[in-house]
Amino acid sequence: MVEAKRRLTVAIVGRPNVGKSTLFNRLVGKRLALVDDTPGVTRDWRAGEARLGGIELTVVDTAGLEEVFDDSLEARMRRQTERAIERADVALFLIDARAGVTPLDHHFAGWLRKGRTPVILVANKAEGAAGRPGLLEAFELGLGEPVPLSAEHGEGLADLVEALLPYEPKPEDAEPDEEAWDEALPDPAEEGAEAEAEEPAPEEPKALQLAIVGRPNVGKSTLLNALVGEERVLTGPEAGMTRDAIAVEWNWRGQPVRLVDTAGLRRRARVDGKLEKLAVADTLRVIRMAHVVVLVLDAHAILDKQDLTIARMVVEEGRALVIAINKWDSVEDKGAALKQLRDRLETSLPQVRGIPTVTISALRGQRLDELLDVTQKAYALWNKRIPTAQLNRWVRGMVETHPPPLVEGRRIKIRYMTQVKARPPTFAVFVNKPVDLPEHYVRYLVNGLREAFEMPGVTIRLLLRKGSSNPYAED
Description:
Blueprint: E1 8-13, H1 20-28, E2 46-52, E3 55-61, H2 73-87, E4 90-96, H3 103-114, E5 119-124, H4 132-137, E6 147-148, H5 157-164, H6 178-184, E7 208-214, H7 220-228, E8 246-252, E9 255-261, H8 274-289, E10 292-298, H9 305-316, E11 320-326, H10 334-348, E12 357-359, H11 368-382, H12 388-401, E13 406-407, E14 410-411, E15 414-421, E16 426-431, H13 439-452, E17 461-466
Parallel strand pairs: 1-3, 1-4, 4-5, 5-6, 7-9, 7-10, 10-11, 11-12, 16-17
Antiparallel strand pairs: 2-3, 8-9, 13-14, 15-16
């Protein structure tokens, strides 16, 4: 039996601003990591899948190595990078060939030599004559022959493949002996021996894409760490710590989950600088790709203007929305806080009634199972489909109870209705005069759908189409 090949895990390490994120994006074939000339852009390590020269890779981008050992942000970033190196099969140690070998490069080369993870030395920005002196200096580091490449221009990747080949995981090709085959096969001479039909393997459930969003410093990263049970992303008192959207593959009660921590979203007028704009754009991309979005609120500032802006954004994108009120253990008047939340939702988001809300403490790990239960229910509703026959029986009852208004003395007629897609539930309503059907009657139908088919808190879309007859009506 031939086992499936395991992916080679490769961690990209080096001092700040040597091109680690540029190489990461080049290998995974997407602009997943934020790239800027400012040192220290990457803070948390992030992983992506790649295929390079036939080698299946899991590539890990890390924060720049700093010689700091206190409790500062830089020291916490260093500890995250150390964890990534320990988990990797091989580390790519990047230097800047144009800048030459620095004392910091020497220091970290010595540190990497002492570790258990094999190291490949990579001289980035080696294109042209400007990179040649640095390429020669790289031999001083004692890590073998450097691999020259240009991550920005994609040059030298063939040499990188050659350097990675010795570390490629090999599948186990051991064949069972004849005795093992004899024991495994039924004896045809034995009375009643039958070869049992092999049952097909059940399909694995698809991963739930779960995004964690909110304003800065409300506890998004703390929540992700509490859910996965390890310090996967950096946390601390500093606001705006998370920049890249960090995805973590996880499993909860047999359901694969792809958790994504995102940068905090401030009001547009307060967004300052290129890096923050890139981080905001990355968060918006994550929201568009998500199935369910958990909007984390600070219990001491529930649903302010920016929270409502984020909630509307999620609803307009058609994602399933769950609200998590964090730091609930420190709230004194819990009843008043919940009443404030319900009032704000009712007045500011009337188009999506019944948004599920869970009070949690990410720091203490309180009510996280309940949050995940609610998330699963929201995901199921987001995927819900309703048979056309049920929809048309329901819409006839709605029209009889409250007929559409008259337009120029003639009644608007709703011919029939059908669900055209899920994720979110989207329905086509065929009307003789779709342009004249007023907005308040559309809301009447949406609210009726939500109540009759038990779809609280999920975005429902109605598409008005012109139709003269019902193709589902019996002759």
